[in-house]
Amino acid sequence: MKLNVQIAEFIRSAAKREDFPRDRLPQVVFAGRSNVGKSSVINRLLNRKNLARVGSAPGKTTHINYFLIDEKLYLVDLPGYGYAKVSKTERARWAKLIETWFADTELMTLGVMLVDIRHKPTVDDCTMAEWFKASGKPFIIVANKQDKIKKSELEPNVARIRETLGLSDETLVIPFSAEKSVGRQELLDQIIEHME
Ligand SMILES: Nc1nc2c(ncn2[C@@H]2O[C@H](COP(=O)(O)OP(=O)(O)OP(=O)(O)O)[C@@H](O)[C@H]2O)c(=O)[nH]1
Ligand SMILES: [Mg+2]
Cα of 175 to ligand 2 centre, how many Å? Predict the structure, then answer.
Protein backbone atom coordinates (compact mmCIF):
# COMPACT_ATOMS: atom_id res chain seq x y z
CA MET A 1 0.00 0.00 0.00
CA LYS A 2 1.19 3.50 -0.80
CA LEU A 3 0.53 6.10 1.84
CA ASN A 4 0.83 9.82 1.27
CA VAL A 5 1.32 11.23 4.76
CA GLN A 6 1.13 14.76 3.40
CA ILE A 7 -2.62 14.28 3.12
CA ALA A 8 -3.64 14.31 6.75
CA GLU A 9 -6.58 15.90 8.45
CA PHE A 10 -8.03 16.12 11.92
CA ILE A 11 -11.42 14.43 11.89
CA ARG A 12 -12.84 14.67 15.38
CA SER A 13 -12.46 14.37 19.12
CA ALA A 14 -14.43 11.49 20.56
CA ALA A 15 -15.66 11.41 24.14
CA LYS A 16 -18.10 8.53 23.83
CA ARG A 17 -18.86 5.40 21.87
CA GLU A 18 -21.18 7.07 19.38
CA ASP A 19 -18.33 9.36 18.27
CA PHE A 20 -15.99 6.56 17.13
CA PRO A 21 -15.71 6.38 13.32
CA ARG A 22 -16.95 3.08 11.93
CA ASP A 23 -16.29 3.25 8.23
CA ARG A 24 -14.12 0.12 8.24
CA LEU A 25 -10.91 2.00 7.51
CA PRO A 26 -7.94 0.66 9.50
CA GLN A 27 -7.27 2.37 12.82
CA VAL A 28 -3.79 2.67 14.32
CA VAL A 29 -4.04 3.59 17.96
CA PHE A 30 -1.38 5.45 19.97
CA ALA A 31 -1.43 4.93 23.72
CA GLY A 32 0.92 5.87 26.52
CA ARG A 33 1.54 7.89 29.62
CA SER A 34 0.73 11.56 29.58
CA ASN A 35 3.74 13.51 28.34
CA VAL A 36 5.45 10.48 26.77
CA GLY A 37 5.09 12.12 23.37
CA LYS A 38 2.07 10.57 21.62
CA SER A 39 1.10 13.78 19.87
CA SER A 40 4.74 14.52 19.04
CA VAL A 41 5.23 11.07 17.48
CA ILE A 42 2.10 11.53 15.36
CA ASN A 43 3.28 14.97 14.26
CA ARG A 44 6.69 13.52 13.41
CA LEU A 45 5.21 10.65 11.40
CA LEU A 46 3.25 13.15 9.35
CA ASN A 47 6.06 15.70 9.37
CA ARG A 48 3.62 18.28 10.61
CA LYS A 49 4.47 20.76 13.32
CA ASN A 50 1.25 20.79 15.24
CA LEU A 51 -1.56 18.74 13.73
CA ALA A 52 -1.89 16.60 16.84
CA ARG A 53 -1.59 19.34 19.43
CA VAL A 54 1.48 18.93 21.57
CA GLY A 55 0.22 19.65 25.04
CA SER A 56 1.88 22.22 27.21
CA ALA A 57 -0.38 21.05 30.03
CA PRO A 58 0.01 17.28 30.42
CA GLY A 59 -3.05 15.25 31.16
CA LYS A 60 -5.25 17.73 29.38
CA THR A 61 -5.93 15.56 26.34
CA THR A 62 -9.18 14.06 27.57
CA HIS A 63 -10.67 13.00 24.26
CA ILE A 64 -9.76 10.43 21.63
CA ASN A 65 -8.49 12.34 18.63
CA TYR A 66 -8.87 10.93 15.11
CA PHE A 67 -6.66 11.86 12.19
CA LEU A 68 -7.41 10.59 8.71
CA ILE A 69 -4.34 9.89 6.57
CA ASP A 70 -4.58 9.84 2.79
CA GLU A 71 -8.21 8.75 3.14
CA LYS A 72 -6.83 5.27 3.86
CA LEU A 73 -6.37 4.95 7.59
CA TYR A 74 -6.90 6.64 10.93
CA LEU A 75 -4.26 7.51 13.48
CA VAL A 76 -6.00 7.50 16.84
CA ASP A 77 -4.49 9.56 19.65
CA LEU A 78 -5.72 8.20 22.99
CA PRO A 79 -5.68 10.46 26.03
CA GLY A 80 -2.61 9.88 28.21
CA TYR A 81 -2.69 8.21 31.59
CA GLY A 82 -0.69 8.44 34.79
CA TYR A 83 -0.71 12.18 35.27
CA ALA A 84 -0.55 12.74 39.03
CA LYS A 85 -2.62 15.90 39.18
CA VAL A 86 -5.71 14.35 37.65
CA SER A 87 -8.74 13.97 39.92
CA LYS A 88 -10.28 10.60 40.75
CA THR A 89 -13.34 11.47 38.67
CA GLU A 90 -11.18 12.32 35.65
CA ARG A 91 -9.20 9.11 36.08
CA ALA A 92 -12.38 7.04 36.17
CA ARG A 93 -13.69 8.85 33.11
CA TRP A 94 -10.43 8.05 31.29
CA ALA A 95 -10.61 4.37 32.24
CA LYS A 96 -14.20 4.12 31.07
CA LEU A 97 -13.46 5.78 27.72
CA ILE A 98 -10.45 3.55 27.05
CA GLU A 99 -12.34 0.46 28.16
CA THR A 100 -15.17 1.33 25.80
CA TRP A 101 -12.73 1.77 22.95
CA PHE A 102 -10.92 -1.52 23.56
CA ALA A 103 -14.20 -3.39 24.07
CA ASP A 104 -15.09 -2.43 20.51
CA THR A 105 -12.85 -5.11 19.04
CA GLU A 106 -13.63 -4.11 15.46
CA LEU A 107 -11.92 -0.77 15.85
CA MET A 108 -8.20 -1.46 16.27
CA THR A 109 -6.03 -2.66 13.40
CA LEU A 110 -2.66 -2.00 15.01
CA GLY A 111 -1.64 -0.79 18.44
CA VAL A 112 1.30 1.50 19.05
CA MET A 113 2.24 1.77 22.68
CA LEU A 114 4.61 4.53 23.66
CA VAL A 115 7.04 4.38 26.55
CA ASP A 116 9.84 6.68 27.63
CA ILE A 117 13.13 5.00 26.72
CA ARG A 118 14.82 6.62 29.72
CA HIS A 119 12.70 4.95 32.38
CA LYS A 120 11.50 1.60 33.58
CA PRO A 121 7.86 1.25 32.47
CA THR A 122 5.38 2.18 35.23
CA VAL A 123 2.65 -0.01 36.71
CA ASP A 124 0.19 1.88 34.49
CA ASP A 125 2.34 1.08 31.44
CA CYS A 126 2.19 -2.61 32.37
CA THR A 127 -1.60 -2.40 32.63
CA MET A 128 -1.75 -0.75 29.21
CA ALA A 129 0.48 -3.46 27.73
CA GLU A 130 -1.91 -6.07 29.12
CA TRP A 131 -4.82 -4.32 27.36
CA PHE A 132 -2.93 -4.60 24.10
CA LYS A 133 -2.01 -8.25 24.67
CA ALA A 134 -5.61 -9.08 25.53
CA SER A 135 -6.86 -7.35 22.38
CA GLY A 136 -5.45 -10.13 20.23
CA LYS A 137 -4.45 -7.49 17.66
CA PRO A 138 -0.84 -6.81 16.67
CA PHE A 139 0.94 -4.08 18.61
CA ILE A 140 4.37 -2.53 18.65
CA ILE A 141 6.26 -0.53 21.25
CA VAL A 142 7.74 2.84 20.45
CA ALA A 143 10.44 3.79 22.95
CA ASN A 144 10.44 7.57 22.61
CA LYS A 145 12.85 10.33 23.64
CA GLN A 146 15.90 8.41 22.49
CA ASP A 147 17.71 11.71 22.03
CA LYS A 148 17.77 11.98 25.84
CA ILE A 149 19.91 8.89 26.49
CA LYS A 150 23.50 7.91 25.81
CA LYS A 151 24.26 5.39 23.11
CA SER A 152 25.46 2.93 25.75
CA GLU A 153 22.06 3.04 27.48
CA LEU A 154 20.09 2.04 24.39
CA GLU A 155 20.42 -1.72 24.60
CA PRO A 156 19.98 -2.15 28.38
CA ASN A 157 17.03 0.25 28.43
CA VAL A 158 15.27 -1.59 25.62
CA ALA A 159 15.90 -4.88 27.43
CA ARG A 160 14.39 -3.43 30.61
CA ILE A 161 11.30 -2.29 28.70
CA ARG A 162 10.90 -5.77 27.21
CA GLU A 163 11.28 -7.46 30.53
CA THR A 164 9.06 -5.11 32.56
CA LEU A 165 6.22 -5.22 30.03
CA GLY A 166 6.64 -8.98 29.59
CA LEU A 167 6.86 -8.74 25.82
CA SER A 168 7.18 -11.79 23.64
CA ASP A 169 10.03 -11.96 21.14
CA GLU A 170 7.63 -11.19 18.31
CA THR A 171 6.77 -7.78 19.71
CA LEU A 172 8.86 -5.11 18.06
CA VAL A 173 10.42 -2.31 20.12
CA ILE A 174 11.39 0.71 18.03
CA PRO A 175 13.77 3.23 19.61
CA PHE A 176 12.34 6.59 18.55
CA SER A 177 12.90 10.29 18.82
CA ALA A 178 10.08 12.58 17.80
CA GLU A 179 12.47 15.44 18.35
CA LYS A 180 15.30 14.17 16.15
CA SER A 181 13.24 12.03 13.78
CA VAL A 182 14.80 8.71 14.75
CA GLY A 183 12.80 5.57 13.92
CA ARG A 184 10.27 7.41 11.79
CA GLN A 185 10.69 5.32 8.66
CA GLU A 186 10.66 2.06 10.60
CA LEU A 187 7.39 2.96 12.30
CA LEU A 188 5.87 4.10 9.03
CA ASP A 189 6.92 0.83 7.36
CA GLN A 190 5.35 -1.15 10.19
CA ILE A 191 2.08 0.76 9.91
CA ILE A 192 1.93 0.27 6.16
CA GLU A 193 2.82 -3.42 6.47
CA HIS A 194 -0.05 -4.00 8.89
CA MET A 195 -2.54 -2.33 6.55
CA GLU A 196 -1.89 -4.79 3.77
N1 LIG B 1 13.61 15.45 23.94
C2 LIG B 1 12.45 14.99 23.45
N3 LIG B 1 11.29 15.54 23.85
C4 LIG B 1 10.14 15.04 23.35
C5 LIG B 1 10.13 13.95 22.42
N6 LIG B 1 8.84 13.68 22.12
C7 LIG B 1 8.08 14.55 22.83
N8 LIG B 1 8.85 15.37 23.58
C9 LIG B 1 8.39 16.45 24.49
O10 LIG B 1 7.59 15.87 25.53
C11 LIG B 1 6.51 16.74 25.89
C12 LIG B 1 5.18 15.99 25.78
O13 LIG B 1 4.91 15.69 24.43
P14 LIG B 1 3.42 15.41 23.90
O15 LIG B 1 3.56 14.98 22.49
O16 LIG B 1 2.53 16.56 24.21
O17 LIG B 1 3.00 14.18 24.84
P18 LIG B 1 1.61 13.40 24.89
O19 LIG B 1 1.94 11.98 25.16
O20 LIG B 1 0.81 13.68 23.68
O21 LIG B 1 0.91 14.04 26.19
P22 LIG B 1 -0.68 14.05 26.54
O23 LIG B 1 -1.43 14.56 25.36
O24 LIG B 1 -0.79 14.94 27.75
O25 LIG B 1 -1.06 12.66 26.90
C26 LIG B 1 6.61 17.96 24.97
O27 LIG B 1 7.27 18.98 25.66
C28 LIG B 1 7.45 17.44 23.80
O29 LIG B 1 8.17 18.47 23.16
C30 LIG B 1 11.39 13.40 22.00
O31 LIG B 1 11.51 12.47 21.20
N32 LIG B 1 12.51 13.96 22.55
MG1 LIG C 1 -1.13 14.54 23.40
Answer: 19
